[in-house]
# Entry
Amino acid sequence: MPALPSWLIEPLWDQFAALLPAREEFVATHPWGCHRRRIADRIVFDKLIQVLRFGCSYEAIADTTCSATTMRTRRDEWIALGVFASLVEIARDAYDRMVGLVLEEVSVDGCITKAPGGGEVAGPSPVDRRKQGMKRSVLVEGYGIPLGRVLAGAHRHDSPLLAPTLDRLAALGPLPDEITVHLDAGYDSGKTRDTLAARGLNAEIARKGEKAPIQAGQRWHVERTNAWHNSFNRLQRCYERREAVVDAFFDLADAIITVRSLIRRTWILYRWDTRPIRRP
# Structure
């Protein structure tokens, strides 16, 4: 079973490959003077996609084509080069050009997942008998395209993570004059309203004590994005201990979500000669 359909993984790989530096096919530093062929980047990329999608360990997915050590080494190399962060930024810019980001309406919400191995962004979960868990505070635009996140331990409350999450807006370039932030009842406090007012943002906050369907507003988009993230088993049950690695997998997942939405929405908005008959 493929981790991603070909119509999605091929454009992802084309852009990912364009970000990689040129490498020699053979490594000439073998201690015995031999030449060892370098594992192809495409093989490692496909393996990391499988790790992200299925949540399996590196050892479980390793085979004769690529070892677990090579996956980790190449992953760390790409993180140091900033390839994952550049990929999601390019995907978001392409979506903005062809479809348009709805930045007038943004949403923020927290989501708690499991982190059995602990790590730099793990903490005791208040909803799982204080087992190790991770919280992500996600920022999305009006359709649900992820714009950024803040990672923290599961014991952290959503409200203190709001300000650093909204800081992700600064990296998006020119912003609309009026931006409305949609939040759930967990953010219903004077401190949250002061934080939004200081940034010149409008607030649409659900009120405590009232049923959610009555006042859901535009907040369901971020709930759907959380479900999209949880469809990647590596993010739903994270065994990575380093924050940089967790961020890299989130960047890869965000790029997949953005490109998938871009392909599906351009099928409706545009016409071209090779346009498929059915929507992907």
Q: What stands out?
A: The chain has a mean pLDDT of 91.
